[in-house]
Design goal:
53 strands, 5-stranded mixed beta sheet, oxidoreductase, 2 iron, 2 sulfur cluster binding, alpha+beta, iron-sulfur, about 1300 residues
């Protein structure tokens, strides 16, 4: 213990005490920079994952429980462990995924998620389980709405969310008091209807899908108890000193004020949701931090006669609770401000952030897009700030009006020793109306583009007496609109002329330049008008003013969505098979949901292991003049720095063309290109040293966009085209000739597990062992050998599982391993690295952006990578499902100075089909016919040839399209939409019906092969090895099913360890949706060999068990191991002659989607999707349904909210979940119905008649895009605009809003001036 300062009575200790999973933990002087996530993983609790390090994905979610003596209650909060400082958990109980259950004894949450197919890659699953667990600890019987809301801080990239929600909703109130729930597979609903939970999509009613599952009863009384000793724990002033930072933890306001006197520059930390990001990603340094999360005086609240006073550091979730109580405590006319704050808090970040963040943090940080500050600015009377009065050391307080608080961008009027203590929120008065609005790219857990807080007080005759209009996102700070406020005073609310004048005044007052930071100038200005429009009519409705334009239309709030529901119907079952065709859960699901599944970075540290950090280019294109690592090498704990000069073998590599370098030697061609590798004792030391490496450049001109590449004739080598018929003659004979353009954005893979690798040099013969998160172990092995100058037989690459891949780890996983291998080679010690999310996005490439001038261009980036093959697939899919007799397609692969774009689920196919469907939509618009009818008129027929001369067989698209049309009630719903749109001016609905055709096979001939090894041991157990990689798609599960079925043994007796290049050589990458086809047949062939070897013993002793027969065969010296091999028959395509069979078969489908858009904001929601996929005879329907739903939702993201953006200097803007938005739990269809098609397949030669399903459904996500386009068309017609239009993908809220082209948008238009440049670019 020591005193805070001489003569002061405050003393501190440096011992941290908390409980972890029920066990007491004491740590002497922990490093203040250590996060809770870093600590729990360092002690072996690796179930908690790092997904983004900014609190945006929820993979790191844990439960933190604390005792509140003022209420005598225990508080349970889900928390982002990646942001929570370890020092913040003093006196608390931390529960990780390992603390609630394990494989042998799972918690009901874990069991239900696993058994109801809620885990695919599994990397996000522990965090999702912990969010649900936290909800149940606070509310053992939640509503379905509360369940959906509890996941607003979690992301999943694999499942499409539906099965997770199904599992979670078994705990809801609708499930009644029967906690022992059964999922029944009965084909007849009637027999089980009385035993259902009451949900229309109850798992009991899902035809033949889930099988018979008995769930463990959930008993809230059996949960891990809060440690009794902590209920009497007396918190003390703490002080911790680390390598870089000193941190204090005061427990009283006076302690805090004294600390601020001594350390006026100290940074106050509460939830660490801002400071944690600043220190990690912006590399800001705060030598002294003060954690204020345990000061009770800053968390109080009080109802006063004229308003509510809250402690400024109350958590946002507690603030929500207090506001709800206030709404009940005060009179209805007094709660307008409280309701508005609740409206915006509902969409403020996610639960994990709201549980720790505070109003004080929001206010003092002063973000220009704060969700709370505009409301405070327009309604709040005062902020109370306090400081220590010298020399008396007594507390002094002063009041500050919010209008005077913020002085500039993230600046305020606080002196250095002042803290924000209280906030007074007044009650609204009679005649006062207050509303808050927010628009973001995604409704849940997203930062605002523009937000606002409006207040107006009306007197007699609805004359405006007071007005306050505040906005965020329109300046460097939240601002009022005083001129507009002055304009409205004394005028009659409800008069149309007054509204028009007010909108004009706002437009004049709130200006934005084209190059304004944040971009989207026209859209942001249109939101100002849109929000005011909503507010005007909302208040008018509240005071009883009748408006002539809109009748009963309700457009003033947001589009509210219902609780989602789903239905999954299997078209045909495999009754003649025992195991193949069944809905067995993913074999690793229980390990994944309990945190026991091991991913690359979860592996225990090896003796002598070091950490590698990449040194990356910070410019888009330049010559490297000098690399100076001297300062970095001087740092303690640094073991080496390696560049191109240190590569022992070949520094060149590439998946097709060797046009890349392991380390850039003379020139860099994009931001994020690898220049060097720092190797150190720890990640923290390595990263600090990497920042000290100085690189001198001679900057060269760079190219970023497709349009710039075309202008400068910058292309990678690619000279292929496809054609059929006579184009010239076709044009001459056409009644109409249309021209147009389709622009399609890229997409970030955002697998939850970033690229990770561990390279281990062996002590003899220059052997290297690699553990990598890669879809391509053989390529990793071969290139690593080349780089090190050794033979491939001395390198082994092992892959246990991936936390998602989606093509992003097919080739772009390799550069990290190559860099680490150089360091490991020189140091003769293991070297590990798991990329941070921002590094991964900058380095690894994305889905290719495309431009179709009805000629195809893709943006390959700086190296060719797989881009030519991506273009080939786009060219072969640009027909989608339509017969076009005269057809020619040319492709160009643009060479630019962005990261090297790469494979992504669909591999160019979705882009080709998107161009085709856009063409059809524009044709339908211009001809004035229904686009669904146009599609049907032009479908291929059985036996017709594609434009690459492949004959279509087993062609079911017309039939399944008709099935979707009928099951979705398309015709009637089209009429209903017409009716809805005629009655609603500012809300429009749209409907689309989209087919897909996806070719299955690698277009590279030699990759269509696979090997397997099956071993039978004397105890009757079976070990299967094959060349495919498990990344969540259920490949290993299917392989076990095939082996068990073929050998006629229980699946429990069959095991699969890992994928390894020293067991199965020369493997093809796990990609192209053919891994089950290739590896499945290889496993089958190996098993058939063993069946034939065992046949004599089976026939001789039919009554014996499998184990006994195996022993007999062993004693008779029979080989009980077998290799299996398979190569896809029939396929080969000659591009020069345009001859041969390109694809082995096609997987097809169709989807009908209905959406609703808010034309004043560009917001949208998916009302319903009906989807049918033709997947043949599935090996595992549950896994394939999961693939269908996951691919669909990923496709929805691609064409709606996932927008990849670059700064003009080449840096990536969308480097994490803060700026790059994936679909969340409440972005999926509200009603999601999935059917598998029942058909005949006389020409299908695949394993068990199954079809590849990983990629084909993704394009059906575009049915949302085309439904949005249809809704926009209705909105344009309402504005008397009947011109055809091109909607750029993705259909973001900005693009939706601006495409509506109403008077507000036209009035908000910002013209680009000659000297102005885009603030941000879509490349």
């Amino acid at each position: 213990m020591a005193s805070l300062e001489n003569g002061n009575s405050f003393y501190f200790t440096s011992k941290l005490h908390f409980y972890l999973n029920g066990t007491s933990v004491e740590i002497d002087n922990p490093d203040p920079d250590t996060t809770l996530l870093q600590y729990v993983r360092s002690i072996g609790l690796t179930g908690t994952k790092l997904g983004c390090a900014e609190g945006g994905c929820g993979a790191c979610t844990v439960l933190v429980s604390s005792f509140d003596p003022s209420t005598d209650k225990i508080l349970h909060c889900s928390v982002n462990a990646c942001l929570a400082p370890l020092c913040s958990v003093d006196g608390k109980h931390v529960i990780t995924i390992e603390g609630i259950g394990n494989v042998k004894k799972p918690h009901p949450v874990q069991e239900r998620i696993a058994l109801l197919h809620g885990s695919q890659c599994g990397f996000c699953t522990p965090g999702i389980a912990m969010s649900l667990y936290a909800l149940l600890r606070n509310n053992p019987c939640p509503t379905e709405e509360e369940i959906e809301e509890c996941f607003d801080g979690n992301l999943c990239r694999c499942t499409g969310y539906r099965p997770i929600l199904d599992a979670a909703k078994t705990f809801s109130k609708l499930s009644g008091d029967k906690n022992e729930i059964t999922a029944n597979s009965s084909e007849s609903n009637a027999s089980s209807q009385s035993n259902t939970c009451g949900r229309v999509d109850c798992c009991k009613l899902n035809n033949n899908f889930n099988g018979e599952i008995k769930f463990k009863e959930y008993d809230a009384t059996q949960e891990l108890i809060f440690p009794p000793s902590l209920m009497n724990y007396q918190p003390r002033l703490l002080c911790f000193s680390g390598r870089k930072t000193k941190c204090y933890r005061p427990v009283s306001l006076m302690q805090l004020l004294h600390l601020k006197v001594k350390y006026p520059e100290a940074k106050l930390v509460a939830g660490n949701t801002e400071v944690g990001i600043e220190t990690k990603f912006k590399r800001l340094k705060y030598d002294v931090q003060i954690y204020v999360g345990d000061i009770s005086e800053l968390k109080t609240w009080e109802f006063q006669e004229d308003g509510l006073t809250i402690g400024a550091n109350i958590s946002l979730s507690a603030f929500q609770s207090v506001l709800k109580k206030a709404c009940k405590h005060y009179q209805p006319h007094q709660i307008q401000i409280f309701e508005s704050l609740l409206a915006n808090l509902r969409w403020f970040a996610g639960n994990q952030i709201r549980n720790v963040a505070s109003p004080a943090g929001n206010i003092v940080t002063g973000s220009p897009i704060s969700d709370l500050n505009p409301i405070f600015l327009s309604t709040c009377k005062k902020f109370v700030v306090s400081s220590l009065q010298e020399p008396s050391s007594s507390k002094s307080s002063r009041d500050i009006s919010p209008t005077a608080f913020w002085t500039g961008y993230r600046q305020n009027c606080l002196s250095k020793n002042e803290v924000l203590e209280k906030i007074f929120i007044p009650c609204s008065t009679r005649g006062q109306y207050v509303r808050a609005y927010k628009q973001a790219k995604r409704r849940d857990d997203d930062i605002a583009i523009v937000n606002s807080g409006f207040s107006v007080t009306l007197g007699d005759g609805n004359v405006v007496q007071e007005a306050a209009f505040s906005f965020g996102g329109m300046s460097g700070v939240s601002v009022r609109a005083p001129e507009s406020e002055e304009f409205i005073l004394g005028k009659f609310w409800g008069e149309e002329a007054v509204l028009k004048g007010l909108l004009k005044k706002l437009s004049e007052e709130l200006q934005l330049g084209f190059s304004a930071p944040g971009g989207m100038a026209t859209y942001r200005r249109s939101l100002v008008g849109g929000f005011m429009y909503k507010f005007w009519y909302d208040v008018s409705k509240s005071v009883g003013i009748k408006t002539t334009d809109f009748g009963d239309e309700d457009f003033t709030g947001i589009i509210e969505r219902s609780v989602s529901k789903g239905l999954q119907i299997i078209g045909q079952t495999e009754e003649e098979k025992k195991i193949v065709g069944s809905t067995i859960p993913h074999t690793s699901a229980m390990k994944q949901v309990t945190g026991e599944a091991i991913y690359t970075d979860d592996m225990p540290k090896f003796c002598g292991e070091l950490y590698g950090t990449l040194v990356l280019s910070k410019v888009a294109r330049a010559k490297i003049l000098k690399i100076d690592a001297s300062k970095a090498l001087e740092q303690p704990g640094i073991h080496g720095f390696y560049t191109a000069e240190d590569v022992p073998g070949n520094n060149k590599w590439g998946p097709v063309f060797h046009d890349e370098e392991v380390f850039a030697s003379d020139e860099v061609n994009c931001v994020g290109q690898i220049i060097g590798l720092i190797v150190a004792d720890s990640q923290e030391i390595a990263k600090e040293a990497a920042d000290l490496v100085v690189i001198e450049y001679e900057v060269l001109p760079h190219i970023l966009t497709i349009e710039e590449a075309i202008e400068h004739n910058s292309f990678h080598p690619f000279d292929k085209s496809l054609s059929t018929g006579n184009i010239e003659k076709g044009f001459q004979e056409s009644d109409h000739v249309f021209e147009g353009e389709t622009r399609i954005g890229g997409q970030e893979h955002f697998y939850l597990e970033t690229n990770a690798s561990l390279v281990i040099p062996k002590p003899e013969d220059n052997e290297i062992e690699i553990h990598a998160s890669t879809q391509n172990p053989t390529e990793t092995q071969l290139v690593c050998a080349s780089v090190l100058g050794i033979m491939a037989n001395k390198v082994v690459c092992r892959v246990k599982r991936l936390g998602g891949g989606f093509g992003g780890k097919e080739s772009r996983s390799i550069p990290l391993t190559l860099a680490l291998s150089v360091g490991a080679w020189h140091l003769k010690r293991p070297v590990r690295c798991m990329l941070d999310r921002d590094e991964d996005i900058v380095i690894s490439g994305q889905r290719h952006p495309f431009l179709g001038h009805w000629k195809l261009y893709n943006n390959a980036g700086w190296s060719a990578d797989l881009s030519p093959a991506v273009m080939e697939r786009a060219m072969t899919h640009v027909d989608n499902c339509y017969y076009i007799p005269n057809f020619r397609v040319n492709g160009k692969v643009c060479k630019t100075n962005i990261h090297s774009n790469t494979a992504f689920r669909g591999f160019g196919g979705p882009q080709g089909m998107m161009i085709c469907e856009n063409i059809l939509c524009e044709i339908a618009d211009r001809l004035g016919i229904d686009f669904a009818e146009l599609r049907e008129m032009n479908f291929y027929s059985e036996g017709q040839k594609t434009h690459f001369n492949q004959i279509l067989t087993d062609w079911h698209v017309p039939a399944l399209y008709q099935q979707v049309k009928e099951s979705s009630d398309y015709v009637n719903r089209r009429n209903e939409i017409e009716n809805f749109n005629s009655r609603n001016r500012w809300r429009k609905r749209g409907l689309s019906l989209i087919p897909t055709k996806f070719g299955l096979s690698y277009t590279v001939y030699h990759l269509n092969q696979a090997g397997a090894l099956v071993l039978i041991y004397k105890d009757g157990s079976v070990l299967v090895s094959h060349g495919g990689v498990e990344m969540g798609q259920g490949l290993h599960t299917k392989m076990l099913q095939i082996a068990a079925e073929t050998l006629n043994v229980p699946i429990e007796d069959v095991h699969l360890m890992e994928t390894s290049t020293n067991v199965i050589p020369n493997t093809s990458p796990s990609a192209a949706s053919v891994s089950s086809d290739l590896n499945g047949y290889a496993v089958f062939n190996a098993c058939k060999t063993l069946v034939e070897r065992l046949r004599p013993y089976r026939e001789k002793n039919p009554e014996k068990s499998f184990k006994e027969i195996v022993v007999d065969a062993y004693l008779d010296r029979v080989n009980l191991s077998a290799n299996g091999f398979y190569k896809t028959p029939d396929i080969h395509f000659d591009w020069s002659k345009k001859e041969g069979q390109m694809f082995f078969y096609f997987t097809t489908g169709a989807a009908c989607t209905e959406v609703e858009i808010d034309t004043l904001t560009g917001d949208h929601t998916i009302l319903r999707t009906d989807l049918v996929m033709d997947i043949g005879r599935s090996i595992n329907y549950a896994i394939d349904i999961g693939q269908i739903e996951g691919a669909f939702v990923q496709g929805v993201g691609w064409c709606t909210i996932e927008e990849t953006l670059h700064f003009p200097n080449g840096h990536v803007f969308t480097k994490g979940p803060g700026n790059y938005k994936l679909p969340g739990f409440r972005d999926i269809p509200q009603d999601f119905r999935v059917h598998t098609f029942k058909g005949e397949y006389p020409n299908l030669k695949t394993i068990h008649g199954s079809k590849g399903v990983g990629e084909p459904p993704l394009f059906l996500g575009s049915s949302v895009f085309f439904a949005i386009r249809n809704a926009i068309k209705y909105a344009r017609h309402a504005n008397n605009n009947y011109e055809s239009f091109a909607l750029r993908s993705p259909a973001t809220p900005e693009r939706i809003r601006l495409a509506c082209e109403d008077e507000i948008v036209k009035g908000a238009h910002v013209e680009k001036k000659k000297e102005e440049k885009d603030w941000i670019l879509g490349v």
